[in-house]
UniProtKB/TrEMBL annotation, chains A, C:
Domain Acyl-CoA dehydrogenase/oxidase C-terminal: 233-386
Origin organism lineage: Bacteria, Pseudomonadati, Pseudomonadota, Alphaproteobacteria, Sphingomonadales
Signal peptide positions on this chain: none
Name this protein carries in UniProt: Acyl-CoA dehydrogenase
Entry-linked Pfam families: Acyl-CoA_dh_1, Acyl-CoA_dh_M, Acyl-CoA_dh_N
Cofactor: FAD
Gene3D superfamilies for the chain: Acyl-CoA dehydrogenase/oxidase, N-terminal domain, Butyryl-CoA Dehydrogenase, subunit A, domain 2, Butyryl-CoA Dehydrogenase, subunit A, domain 3
Coiled coil: none
GO cellular component terms attached to this protein's record: plasma membrane
Example of a GO MF term: oxidoreductase activity, acting on the CH-CH group of donors
Similarity section: Belongs to the acyl-CoA dehydrogenase family.
UniProtKB/TrEMBL annotation, chains B, D:
Molecular-function annotations in GO: acyl-CoA dehydrogenase activity; flavin adenine dinucleotide binding
Keyword Oxidoreductase: yes
UniProt cross-references to Pfam families, sorted A to Z: Acyl-CoA_dh_1, Acyl-CoA_dh_N
Record keywords, A-Z: FAD, Flavoprotein, Oxidoreductase
Domain Acyl-CoA dehydrogenase/oxidase C-terminal: 219-355
Residues annotated as domain Acyl-CoA dehydrogenase/oxidase N-terminal: 6-117
Native organism: Glacieibacterium arshaanense
Name of protein: Acyl-CoA dehydrogenase
InterPro entries xrefs: AcylCo_DH-like_C, AcylCo_DH/oxidase_C, AcylCoA_DH/ox_N, AcylCoA_DH/ox_N_sf, AcylCoA_DH/oxidase_NM_dom_sf
PANTHER family: ACYL-COA DEHYDROGENASE, ACYL-COA DEHYDROGENASE FADE28
Length: 406, 364, 406, 364
């Protein structure tokens, strides 16, 4: 048992590190531009092109798709090395992590030819248009419709929780094309031009104050049938490919989120009626439980990486990640605010450590929902890992347009 | 046995709920979020006209002379409706003047409070992690310098009742906010509806209100009022969640059918009713000047914060994505939860106070 | 607001107390005989007859049934006073609390005439035969059948969790009389003679080591149709009467179960690496949370009693009682055993306070199940108090003999 | 990176599981409940013949010389199968001799352990609330008087390794159970399968095993072995519950369809896998003599007890009435849970140890 690279891994790491050292430039230090800012887009495109030219994009993709044809450990190693710096990478996470793999798994050769390389080299930005106000956890309940007339589809409806919609050039969208079929059967996936007439992306303000997502409205938007991905009615099956990729991507603790060390620092500086906070057993137990959750998830990820390094499939234990991380963040933040007594609620910037925890308290409420709620994730663990039967699904076989909620 | 509110208090509760249902609630709270006013002046005027600020003030000082029970139900309804008015601050301050004030001090301040001309607020935090047992702000020769922060409803108030370290120990002091050497400014907090302020004293005149024992006695009473406020907020948050769970459909079922949802709603109710039992115990102890006051107040505070924090967090959770949007009302409960948790000493501090009270009783 | 008796309540209390003081005799001190012991039955019968003669049984029952026709507060007051001593009363709790009220609500005048007075005076002991191995939470799923031939029914099947079956003279039993009807519709209630041929009660040993319950086997047991309670097929409706009475009876903390004071005593005598256990914030928070749970339930019961005292119906808040009490007992016991470090597991009798907690740890696991599991009780709170919709019941309208489990 | 057991350890795990599935499990545990024997002699003989007691013993002392990883997987499988044999005691004692013993001490005891002629057990509790940091039993001039209680697997053992307060502080001592002044007797505990004993020393000869540092070092290793045992017990308890939830029907559905049931099963799995990650970290730290040993061991202990207690309690609960009967296997997990929780210091004590380790690392 060890935590060391194998010889080929070490070699790849050295190569990646050398390239990064030589090319990282101004991203050696934290950058000033925030997500969504125009500068962020410009910098992202430049950096992505640099990586593309050097062969550090699509590391695990087949060479026929413009990828490097390497294993998942190479990708992990490159990302580890890259994350030591502050390069702008988030713009492509959805497109290259979810959309384009769906296109090259289910798209026609023409679509692959047209879109994959441009996405990989960062010229075109992609988003994923699945969730709707009426269809969150129950994604197959979507209502946005696409109606065919000759070779042209017309899309009408609304999507929501779309990351980077306003910065994207294209999106993959799931629409209902046959409401007389049961809900999972009448769906079809398309590629939609986000600059087409009738597409409108509006930022969606979150309760935390930020606006990381969009609502996207589609009014009479035309899509040629050649931009269909997969067969008519196969949209759910195609979407599952995308979602499988999402489940792999979602999970770990957000980088820079406060953890047990934050609490140790904070508690060392606080006096209670019964002595320093750090000496209180309640505080010490909270430090311990936070360590166990956060470090446990890190170690669990290392178990998965070890399997990948051996060329095996990781076990299902990865599925516990998000549900542990999000609730731990919320509980830690709440506990830490309590420790600060009256000032726990003050957000005036005078206590940066506390302010990070307050931010974490707001963000964690969203993290417990995004990418599968705590409840949905527990269902997934119980059903897919432990093999328990699914919830009753009274609407499963009913035509979509005849479903009555029970 | 009659372990319940008096008929008078119940009548007051019904009429307060009816008025606030019509005139407050999340929509009114949302209006206050973006305004520059620190409270809703129209609503506050209406509340004064209804006599709520006068309810607890004795008749000799221009009030109605009602009991602590009426203050408790008003605090609960203020909490339920998220009303952006300084009502609970005024109720807590009134209680301080009643418990700790001299006749002269009462005569000076209570008539104005009753009439609505004086808004009074309460401050003990000092912007660091001070506990309700301590105060860095020290009074010498009737003058004080230092900072109290955050104080809910400070902006717009004429009177602040603060804790400070005096010659006899930590106790309450009166600060005339119009006096020399007194500065007030708005301070940002997680709660965007109920605004808090920073009070800076620069050799300002302060006046002792009672003694350290009176402070402790008042603190228990203030905790009971705060517990009722938290109960009201919890109930509103739970009601909104239950209504949503009856309505929202996923996978062909109303989500309230799923035990993952319904058991959480049941837990909200369980925590709420446990807290309500202790708060009611506190209301009785306040009225009866009972020896159980300390333990009832401490239990009410801890239980009500437990109910509120669980309910506010799971309210967002059970609403799913929509609950995390700015437009959703969930955030009001999520944010207010932190405001109430920090306003009068943490749950952990009160749990310790509860055990001290039990130890004292065992020893007696 | 007050905790005082009204004048009539005080008068009744004084009367009851005077009678008890005059008659309690040897039960002033704890008794030696355990539940199920023959001595216990003998003593129980003598004491019940004494109460009956003095008018302290059936306090709330109509006078026409041999009761006193008084209000619930009288009953509560008498029980409060009686519980100050150690009289043997448990033998009649089920019969008089659940069975006989069902008989006089739904039985014929002949049945009432025959059974009620003998039960009330303690001559005959009753048990309740509802649960089956296959039907626990889902009580309407019972399988024990009763088949009619002329005026005689023949009962075959098995019941379980029957308190005092081996000490009982009669029982009320729910049987399936029409398996072609949906599960709730084909049931009928009977009075069965527990001494009849074919009735066999076997003690059921619990994991805690005790045997408070029985399994009862019915083989070709004959019951005359005159002993039917309610109409054929109305068994579920009749059983609900019984269960409503059960819900009122179940709930509070078992008397003498350890509570926050036990933990305070224990913690005062234990040293940890960081000082006396009682000084540790984790211990203090546990004392506080136990106080809040246990005293909160007591206060909640007082809210209900206050409503009764005013002649009103108590609110639904009583329904939280058992779910709070049972889990609090389990958690307190577990915490206290931990505090004792290595000796937490030792049951050799050298530490009576700890031994009570260990017993509570075993008992609480049963208490979380008996009379409605934590899960069923949460369903009841959510559905009946909060008005949330019920779980999906795919078998609700299906004939019993065609039900397939999903 | 290869953060996983070696192929050898995995092979050992598979064969141990296969053997114990066939030869141990709840039915065998039940047989031991009512017997007078303190362990299942047939099973123990088979285990010795399979070489499990020799696995970790170096070749020079008649063993196979395998690594700590093999001890970890054996402990896990012993826990999973509830095997009524003193295997985990012997593994922990072996580790003590390896870490703290002189060559002479190793030569004296390890060959017998390898061959199965010596059963060794481990004791630190003293029948009061002593923590692993302290010991009332004091050694002077190589002699000790006092009591150690409870000691799992004491009856039938030839060697006990106990903690006692020596001239240098609390550390390990060897006690030859055949020696003069040594008395052993059975003591009742909640665990009816794994029997514990009371060791009474009356001016008995004891022999120092290493020093206080070696004791601390060993304690971490013993905690890691115990964590694997707890993981195994947890997994078995969870598996039984999941199987029941797939089978049992209520209200027309298999109960595993209800989120009230399935989410609890998911929580069992979550806690189990978190604990497994830390235990594996511990197994690595044991093998690598890594500086993270203390924190890995502490985290593994706390996480594994959290997983076990939750799972054991909810195993009874989700089985409903049947789960509370004597005939059900649920009680084995419910009772063993308390045995493992008490055997080597409480979860709270280890949480504190974890934070001390983190503080030391931060200070460094």
């Amino acid at each position: 048992m060890d935590f060391n690279d194998t010889a080929p891994e070490a070699e790849y790491r050295a190569k990646a590190r050398a390239w990064l050292e030589a090319n990282i430039g101004e991203y050696r230090e934290p950058t000033e531009f925030g997500r969504g800012h125009a500068d962020f887009v410009r910098h992202s495109k430049i950096w992505q092109k640099k990586k593309y030219d050097a062969g550090y994009t699509g590391i695990t993709w087949p060479k026929s798709m413009g990828g490097q044809g390497l294993g998942p450990m190479n990708s992990i190693i490159y990302n580890q090395e890259e994350s030591r710096f502050h390069a702008p990478t988030g713009l492509y996470a959805i497109g290259l992590g979810m959309c384009i793999p769906t296109v090259f798994s289910h798209g026609t050769p023409e679509l692959i030819e047209r879109y994959v390389a441009k996405a990989l080299s960062g010229v075109e930005v992609w988003c994923q248009l699945f969730s709707e106000p009426i269809a969150g956890s129950d994604l197959a309940g979507i209502r946005t419709k696409a109606v065919k007339d000759g070779d042209t589809w017309t899309i009408d409806g609304q999507k929501v929780w779309t990351t980077n919609a306003h910065l994207s050039d294209f999106g993959i969208i799931v629409c209902r094309t046959d409401p007389s079929k049961p809900k999972h059967k009448g769906l079809t996936m398309f590629i939609v031009d986000m600059h087409a007439p009738g597409v409108e992306a509006r930022p969606l303000k979150q309760m935390s104050g930020g606006a990381d997502f969009n609502e996207v409205f589609f009014t009479n938007v035309k899509v040629h049938d050649s931009h269909r991905v997969g067969a008519e009615g196969d949209g759910w099956k195609v979407a599952l490919t995308t979602l499988m990729n999402e489940r792999l991507a979602v999970g770990g603790k957000p980088s820079h989120a406060p953890g047990y060390k934050t609490l140790m620092t904070l508690a060392a500086g606080i006096q209670t009626d019964n002595g320093p906070a750090i000496s209180q057993s309640t505080v010490r137990e909270r430090i311990a439980s936070t360590y166990i959750a956060d470090e446990g998830i890190k170690l669990t990820q290392m178990r998965a990486q070890s399997a990948l390094s051996r060329g095996e499939m990781p076990g299902p234990e990865q599925s516990i990640s998000k549900v542990v991380v999000a609730k731990t963040m919320q509980d830690l933040a709440s506990f830490a605010m309590d420790l600060n007594q009256s000032s726990g609620v003050v957000t005036d910037g005078s206590n940066p450590e506390l302010n990070r925890l307050q931010g974490s308290y707001m963000a964690s409420a969203g993290l417990r929902i995004a990418g599968g709620t705590d409840e949905i994730l527990r269902n997934i663990i119980a059903e897919r890992v432990l093999g328990l039967p699914g919830d009753m699904r009274p609407d499963k076989d009913t035509p979509y347009n005849e479903i009555k909620a029970m | 046995m009659n372990f319940d509110f008096s008929d008078d208090a119940k009548t007051m509760r019904e009429s307060a709920r009816k008025f606030l249902d019509a005139n407050a609630g999340p929509a009114i709270a949302r209006k206050s979020m973006n305004g520059t006013a620190t409270y809703d002046a129209d609503l506050w005027k209406a509340v004064i006209d209804l006599g709520w600020t006068a309810a607890r003030v004795p008749e000799e000082f221009g009030g109605v002379g009602l009991t602590a029970e009426e203050s408790c139900v008003l605090a609960e309804e203020a909490g339920r409706s998220l009303a952006p008015i300084p009502l609970t601050s005024v109720l807590a301050a009134t209680e301080a003047l009643l418990r700790a004030g001299s006749k002269e001090q009462q005569a000076r301040w209570l008539p104005g409070i009753a009439e609505g001309k004086v808004i009074a607020c309460v401050g003990w935090g000092e912007g660091n992690a001070a506990s309700p047992s301590t105060a860095a702000l020290t009074v010498k020769d009737g003058k004080a310098s230092g900072v109290k922060l955050p104080i809910a409803d400070l902006l717009g108030a004429q009177l602040a009742i603060i804790t400070a370290n005096g010659p006899k120990g930590v106790q309450l002091y009166l600060v005339d906010l119009g006096g020399a050497g007194v500065k007030t400014e708005l301070v940002e907090t997680l709660d965007l509806v109920r605004r808090s302020g920073k009070l800076t004293l620069d050799n300002a005149a302060v006046e002792a209100l009672g003694d350290p024992d009176a402070y402790q006695d008042w603190l228990d009473r203030a905790a009971i009022l705060a517990a009722f406020e938290a109960l009201g907020t919890t109930a509103a948050s739970m009601d909104m969640t239950v209504a949503y769970a009856k309505d929202r459909v996923a996978f062909g079922q109303r989500i309230g059918r799923y035990q993952g949802v319904k058991h959480k709603c049941a837990d909200m109710y369980i925590k709420l009713e446990l807290a309500r039992a202790h708060a009611l115990h506190g209301a009785w102890a306040m009225g009866a000047d009972a020896g159980e006051l300390r333990q009832a107040a401490s239990a009410a505070r801890v239980a009500s914060l437990d109910a509120l924090s669980f309910t506010a967090e799971e309210t967002v959770q059970l609403h799913g994505g929509i609950g995390f949007t700015w437009e959703s009302d969930c955030q009001f409960y999520y944010r207010r939860n932190r405001q109430l948790a920090s306003a009068l000493g943490s749950s952990a501090w009160w749990a310790d106070r509860l055990v001290r009270a039990l130890e004292r009783r065992n020893a007696a």
